[in-house]
TrEMBL record:
<dbReference type="GO" id="GO:0004714">
    <property type="term" value="F:transmembrane receptor protein tyrosine kinase activity"/>
</dbReference>
<dbReference type="Pfam" id="PF07714">
    <property type="entry name" value="PK_Tyr_Ser-Thr"/>
</dbReference>
<keyword id="KW-0812">Transmembrane</keyword>
<keyword id="KW-0675">Receptor</keyword>
<keyword id="KW-0325">Glycoprotein</keyword>
<dbReference type="GO" id="GO:0004674">
    <property type="term" value="F:protein serine/threonine kinase activity"/>
</dbReference>
<dbReference type="InterPro" id="IPR000719">
    <property type="entry name" value="Prot_kinase_dom"/>
</dbReference>
<keyword id="KW-0732">Signal</keyword>
<feature type="binding site">
    <location>
        <position position="570"/>
    </location>
    <ligand>
        <name>ATP</name>
    </ligand>
</feature>
<keyword id="KW-0547">Nucleotide-binding</keyword>
<dbReference type="InterPro" id="IPR001245">
    <property type="entry name" value="Ser-Thr/Tyr_kinase_cat_dom"/>
</dbReference>
<dbReference type="GO" id="GO:0004672">
    <property type="term" value="F:protein kinase activity"/>
</dbReference>
<dbReference type="InterPro" id="IPR045272">
    <property type="entry name" value="ANXUR1/2-like"/>
</dbReference>
<feature type="domain" description="Protein kinase">
    <location>
        <begin position="541"/>
        <end position="701"/>
    </location>
</feature>
<keyword id="KW-0723">Serine/threonine-protein kinase</keyword>
<dbReference type="GO" id="GO:0005886">
    <property type="term" value="C:plasma membrane"/>
</dbReference>
<feature type="transmembrane region" description="Helical">
    <location>
        <begin position="452"/>
        <end position="473"/>
    </location>
</feature>
Length: 701
């Protein structure tokens, strides 16, 4: 009987133990469950659902807004089909300070503010200029949505902050700027979501790079997320996050140079196992099962750095969180893949070994173990914006099995200063952007030779130029068969280029009874010049200032803004129906595209029957001028290679980096321009077309 009683206790204890283990595993594997989840569609209908399936409620008559302060609601005058309707197509507008008060549980909160630059209630979009405070923190100051969207080439802006709430109410105040007479404030959407305490650091483990001292992030600190990347993987939408509705983007646009490394996917037999103290909601599993590495060839890896470049505001400290996970069955032991980490041209981590980090947790295996490392970088005062470089390089001192490096994810947060400020400046307009291609003008740290970079550039350039050749070949075949791309039907066919949803054709531009041109272009695309300004800039179209003559018209050298800015002014033939179409297409295209290897459109003039485009001046003219029947000195082969790679990068961006897949359709040496630094710029987009994503274009070129 005694034995039976003991056995009964044993059989009771074992299931109880297994239940507890299972419960713990379920807790660790579960998404975060926010206690507060508020999504306000400002000025919108009572209830609406966004494309990600999340439900938003209106702020009309809500308990969160202030009834004592007047505000208005309005629909966006420009309904861009590329922008989600919810929450961006309606807004609440404020002419005086306005406060939202959100009753929430104490603790950390994500505050996300949604903005779309458009005219609301007849107000000029460029007059929207305001500040925002959240609790005691200044998160925005003199903020211009239109300048930010233009400078960053974004259709809409989402600002995300991490703020600790002590007393159960989160106050968010919008205040029009006092230094602008017509200034007003607006917001399209507000999101407040509870978050776990996953970004603070009070244990002395987070180091300030280059100083050897620790940095404390506690409840008195506010953070602004500026970048969140799924390295080597695809975008992750808020609904696919781990309960906190974070957005993760791919890393391709931030990679430095021609060599992108190698994307890796975890082997199917490698299962993720989160170490003790690390909840699975720290990042989505998709972050840890994809990665970017340098590749298997040590002769290449040792001669370059795997590098990303991020534009940040000067004068702030930044928290940089790097996510790692070895997902392959071939790397399971210490000292197989060891690398150094550089941040801001300083060593952040010497001899990083993901397996060694995982080994410290005493788990049954060391691959498939997600780990993250935090570093703090200070961006000193200087120009309003500067570049933060993140670079990885094989550690040669360790003599590891593989001279390689790996990264799965990146999160970068701006840290509030001692005055509680997070507000930076608006980004510069695109016409004054940095004209130097960093992949050609800057040296990466630690690299002892540029052989790898040049080799990667040659390979990438040749591959892209081959791709261009295939496009041209396919297009010519279609034309010979009488199947011009413009006649394609259905969503998979190429369409006339329109980045605003209403495809303009020659017939859509009308001439009134006095002969003046009636524009169908949206009014907020880019700078509008009067004809008098154009005449002054070109000395009344002085023939001695002609730079060239093309199918569209003459191109003049000019000066604007009191002679401070040199420009190229293209004057079109107003009687040409094809010219009208190309004029509209050029404006729609270049006003939405910003890339260092695409020519920058400054503005246009459309008074009376004029069709005039104003561009950045390209000091060295066209590539053709330096290749054929020229008295100019021959270009060195290295410079020719750099020009080819630059043009290929511009075309590659059109094919894969822009919102829509864009085919230039008129690539030739006269349409590749060279600025004063010999940086190649693809120009003349009048014949360009846009269409489906590359996934839907196989066999249809």
């Amino acid at each position: 009987m005694v034995i039976m009683k003991n056995m009964n206790k044993y059989f009771v204890c074992v299931p109880l133990f297994l239940f507890l283990v299972l419960a713990i595993e379920l807790v660790l594997a579960a998404d975060f469950k926010p206690t507060d989840k508020i999504l306000l569609n400002c000025g919108g209908p009572a209830v609406s659902t966004d494309p990600d399936g999340r439900e938003w409620t209106t702020d009309n008559g809500s308990k969160f807004g202030s009834s004592a302060v007047k505000s208005t609601t309005s629909q966006a005058a420009t309904q861009d089909p590329a922008v989600p309707q919810i929450p961006f197509m309606t807004a609440r507008v404020f002419q005086s300070p306005y406060t939202y008060s959100f009753p929430v549980a104490s603790g950390w909160k994500f505050l996300r503010l949604y903005f779309y630059s458009a005219s609301y209630g007849g107000l000029n979009a460029s007059d929207a200029r305001f500040g925002v405070t959240a609790q005691s923190y200044t998160v925005l100051r003199n903020f211009s949505v239109s300048e930010t969207a233009l400078g960053l080439n974004y259709d809409y802006i989402v600002k995300e902050y991490c703020i600790h709430v002590d007393e159960g109410t989160l106050n968010v105040t919008f205040t029009p700027s006092a230094n602008a007479s017509k200034a007003y404030a607006f917001v399209n959407g507000i999101e407040v979501v509870s978050m776990p305490d996953i970004y603070t650091s009070t244990d002395g483990t987070t180091m300030i790079v280059g100083t050897g001292t620790t940095f404390t992030i506690d409840n008195s600190t506010a953070l602004e997320n500026v970048y969140r990347l799924n390295v080597g993987g695809n975008d992750i939408s808020p609904s696919k996050d781990t309960g906190m509705f974070r957005s993760w983007t791919d890393d391709v646009r931030y990679i430095y140079g021609a060599a992108f490394g190698v994307t890796e996917t975890a082997d199917p037999e490698v299962k993720l196992e989160y170490p003790p103290g690390t909840p699975s909601y720290i990042a989505p599993s998709d972050v840890y099962v994809t990665a970017r590495s340098m590749g298997p060839n040590p002769n290449i890896s040792l001669n370059w750095n795997l590098t990303w470049i991020f534009s940040i505001d000067s004068g702030f400290s930044y928290l940089v969180r790097l996510h790692f996970c070895e997902g392959t069955t071939t790397i399971t032991k210490v000292n197989q893949r060891v690398f150094d980490i550089f941040l801001g041209n300083q060593t952040a981590q010497d001899g990083a070994d993901v397996i060694a980090w995982a080994d410290s947790f005493d788990l049954p295996h060391s691959n498939g173990v997600p780990v993250h490392k935090d570093y703090v970088v200070f961006a000193p005062n200087g120009p309003p914006q500067q570049d933060l470089w993140l670079a990885l390089h094989p550690n040669t001192a360790s003599k590891s099995n593989y001279y390689d490096a790996i990264l799965n994810g990146v999160e970068i947060f701006k840290i509030s200063d001692s005055k509680g400020n997070l507000a930076g400046t608006n980004p510069p307009p695109p016409q004054v952007q940095d004209l130097i291609d960093p992949s050609l003008a800057r040296k990466s740290s630690k690299s002892k030779s540029h052989t790898g970079i040049i080799a990667g550039g040659i390979g990438g350039g040749v591959a892209l130029l081959l791709l261009i050749g295939l496009f041209a070949f396919g297009t010519s075949r279609r034309r010979r068969n009488g199947k011009d791309s413009s006649t394609s039907e259905g969503p998979s066919g190429w369409l006339p280029l329109s980045l605003y949803g209403n495809s303009h054709s020659a017939a859509s531009a009308k001439t009134n009874t006095t002969g003046s041109y009636t524009s169908t272009l949206p009014s907020n695309l880019c700078r509008h010049f009067s004809f008098a300004e154009i005449k002054a800039a070109t000395n009344n179209f002085d023939e001695s200032l002609i730079l060239g003559v093309g199918g569209f018209g003459k191109v003049y050298k000019g000066e604007i803004d009191g002679g401070s800015t040199k420009v190229a002014i293209k004057r079109g033939n107003p009687l040409s129906e094809q010219g009208v179409h190309e004029f509209q297409t050029e404006i729609e295209m270049l006003s939405k595209l910003r890339h260092r290897h695409l020519v920058s459109l400054i503005g246009y003039c459309e008074e009376n029957t004029e069709m005039i485009l104003v561009y950045d001046h390209m000091a060295y003219g066209t590539l053709r001028e330096h290749l054929y029947k020229t008295q100019k000195p021959p270009l060195p082969w290295k410079q020719r290679l750099e020009i080819c790679i630059g043009a290929a990068r511009g075309l590659h961006y059109l094919h894969t980096g822009a919102k829509y897949t864009i085919i230039h359709r008129d690539v030739k040496t006269t349409n590749i321009l060279l600025d004063e630094k010999w940086v190649a710029k693809v120009s003349d987009f009048g014949l360009s077309k846009t269409g489906p994503t590359l996934d839907n274009t196989h066999g249809k070129y």
